[in-house]
Amino acid sequence: MNNWTGYAQYRDQRILTASPGDLILLLYDGGIRQVRLARLAIQDNKMGDASVALIKAQEIVEELMAGLDFEIDLAHDLFRLYDYLLHRLTQANLEKDDAAAQEAETMLVELRQTWAEVVQISRMPVGVAANLF
Fold first, then answer.
1. Taking the alpha carbons of 103, 106, 112, 118 in that order, is the dihedral positive or negative?
2. Is a pLDDT exceeding 70 seen at residue 81?
3. Which of 3-17, 46-60, 94-108, 117-131 has the lowest mean pLDDT?
4. Residue 112's closest CA among 18, 26, 34?
5. Of 91, 101, 95, 89, whose CA–CA distance to 36 is shortest?
6. Interatomic CA distance for residues 53 and 48, integer angstroms
7. In which element (H, E) is residue 118 found?
8. Would you say the pTM of this structure is higher than 0.85?
9. CA angle, corner 133, sides to 106 and 26, nearest 5?
10. Among candidates 57, 56, 66, 55, which has minimal Cα distance to 109?
11. Does the pLDDT of residue 129 top 70, yes or no?
12. How many whole angstroms separate alpha carbon 84 and alpha carbon 88?
């Protein structure tokens, strides 16, 4: 087995065994990775590579939007954030604008950090988690 096949198997197993919260983290990780790749490509004047990475980032944000549960009030606020993020990614792609891509990256990193905290709190025993608030 070559290294690539081993990595693909590891990645697939990680996805199949991830909790719903961890799947969201994986989406954020993928979005951040794609925006960083796009920014590097823009800086290296490789616009085709930048476009491919930004489209993948847009698809990840669309997946995050599709997974929202609108029975929860926070989902509406997250939808607006994701919509703005999608707008900035689109601008970054159309104009090959590193500043727009950087803003999108910052937003994704901050959203991921917040989500990671939510996942961590959700894994705590109820009494311990209640004491945090």
1. negative
2. yes
3. 3-17
4. 26
5. 101
6. 9
7. helix 98-122
8. no
9. 35
10. 57
11. no
12. 6
Q: For residue 19, what is the DSSP state?
A: -
Which tokens sit at 28? 């954020």
CB-facing half-sphere around the CA of 83: CA atoms within 13 A:
7
Amino acid in the structure at residue 16: L
Token code pair at residue 34:
């794609």
Beta-carbon count within 10 A of 116 CB: 15
The residue count for the chain: 133
| Ordered structural domains, the chain, with CATH | 19-120 (1.20.120.340)
Both tokens assigned to 106 = 């910052």
pLDDT surpassing 70 at residue 98: yes
- Joined tokens for residue 76: 């509406």
Instruction: Say how far apart CA 44 and CA 66 lie, in whole Å.
Output: 33
